[in-house]
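This section describes the prediction task in plain terms. A model, or a person checking by hand, is given the sequence of a single protein chain and must write out its three-dimensional structure as a string of tokens. No templates, partner chains or ligands are provided. The sample shown here is typical of the held-out split.
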Amino acid sequence: MNLDPIIPFEPIASEEVPQGSEWISQIKWDGVRILTYFNGQDIKLYNRKLNERTNTYPEFKNISSLTSAKSFIFDGEVIALDSEGKPSFHEVMRRDGIRRMDRVNDIAKEVPIYYMIFDIIFLNDEWINEYWYVNTKLDTFLKVNRLVFSRC
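The expected answer:
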């Protein structure tokens, strides 16, 4: 699998909540959109503007602590919590906005992050983005370790 980033799906604005079985809703986490790519050897993280963020979030470099899948592309949001335990865009931007990579480990201790996965696009060498509501498959591949699957 090539680790070049793909353009992620973006939410669609609507004046009304769409009705029908073909629609789902998801929580707005107030974080940073991150797609995570793993080809069996290497892992790369990209934001929605296709800027690489692998070194910004070193917590996710050790793939064996995240999943037993042999390859994947996950789509989700990296969030940080405020002192009351609520998602905080300000806190996550302290992490995502860092430009001096020599400070990443220090800020990681100050601002722990969580990865709220809301979609699986590619799994075990298979594109599964066309499958309806694939999130139930994710439970098979995840271990608990600061990796949280976001349920609708």
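For orientation: The helical segments are 89-96, 104-110, 135-138.
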